[in-house]
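lol ok so funny story. i was supposed to be doing the assay writeup but got distracted and ended up predicting the structure for this chain instead. priorities right. anyway since i did it might as well share w the group, maybe its usefull for someone
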Amino acid sequence: MREDAPLRLAPVPWRPTPYMLRAVKFLVEHAAAGLLYDPGLRKTSITLAAIKFLKERRDLRRGLGLAPLRPCYLVWPEEARKWLDFSKLTVKVLHGPDKEDRLGEPADVTVVNFDGLAWLLRAEWRVSGGRRSLWWDKERWARLGFDTLVMDELSKLKHSGTRRHRILRQVLPTFQRRGGLTGSPASNSLLDLHGQAYCLDEGRALGRYVTHYRMRWFAPPFYGSRKWIIKPGAEEEIYARLRPLVRREAAEDHLELPPKLDNVVRVDLPPAARKVYDEMEDELVAALDGGEVVSAANAGAALTKCRQLAGGAVYTEDDAATNKPGRAARTHRGVRAWREVHAAKVEALTDLVDELQGQPVLVAYEFQHDLVRLRAALGEDTPAIGGGTSMGESADVARRWNAGEVPVLLVHPQAAGHGLNLQEAGAHVAWFTLTWDYELYDQLNRRLYRSGVKARRVTIHHLVARGTVDEVVLAALRRKARGQGALFEALRRRGRTSQREVTETKKPGHPRG
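and the output, tada:
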């Protein structure tokens, strides 16, 4: 058995509910289709059911799945093994040093992480005649024979200027069918929708170019701002164009979920830390104890420094090999030096853990020095899932968590936001460092607040340093939640209307309406 393979149970029959059957029908009947379903609503098994049907009907030869790395390993193959109905489907993950050798192996669905797409196409930028263009191996792609595309976590393709989006655009026309799965399509604003819709229908719903999309439905940012403002009446126009392309289902409509409570834990900065924070916020430079100076190159960098200071520490150097004071923290970028400024938020978290009296709590952190200080306070052996955690380690930690063996689990939202089911033991999420990204925020919370949760209620704790950028971030998350909620409600309204119209037009002797 592979070291990253989770514990397998005997497969059981797949028992779809009516909304799942409607979703399968939608995927089968539409060559371009998106499922905007909350986590826990069985998007993967729904997709496998559609793939099985299309294969039996000989409308599918070979499918390509794009997903974040953890869902590649921990979701897609396991869903195929979990259900008897999909036992004849072969799902292969291509990642790691042997992926080239395994590429030729037969499979109904080949799953690759988004960053592996460049390898699959052998894509590279080339310069000819002074012009830079994207080259890809068309003969290799034709030999692979992919005719169906499934984009798991479609929101990873929301930015049309990214390398992965530009590469995927080259081969979109070669697929007969394209499907997308996500629970957070507009986590920041409706601007996020264009890139995702384009990957489904090549621009039929919202246009081919993001610049045209912005200019048609949004007003340009004012001087000194980067925020595009949606024009009056534009929301309904966008919703109307998306309705034929996607289906929306909410977890609370189909699952018996417990209440979800929000708890804000206010933390006051000590006077010395407040002085440092205010200097950084106002002057973009601050003096630490001992005379060390921390500076920010611009307002954006200062905002990041302020988020760190609100948590209790700040990076001081990009290179820890210098002789200046500071402690070293290893990150994916190398080794950086940092200084602790206060322990108020760490103490607030330890108090919260004590109050929970052993109830498991998921603690979200952002910066590497957060992880170091949290482990110093909670115990150096406190398990964590972060950027350097392997698939095997993640699966093992998740198993121990769900068995109730882990009272505190430290997680980075980018590493643990997708592909992990942690709902069997925990009922508390504590945000030590809040993220600006609503998708990461929502997805991590839904590691617990989803189908299978056994708790009577789930509580989301937000540790907020009073009078700091923490309060701004929390307000922004709530605003983004309302914006995405408006999109979902508009799509659900249309879905309810369509179902009612079908019911009202049914006639005796015509069971299908």
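The longest strand covers residues 260-267. Residues 1-7, 318-334, 497-513 have pLDDT under 50 and may be disordered.
back to the writeup now i swear
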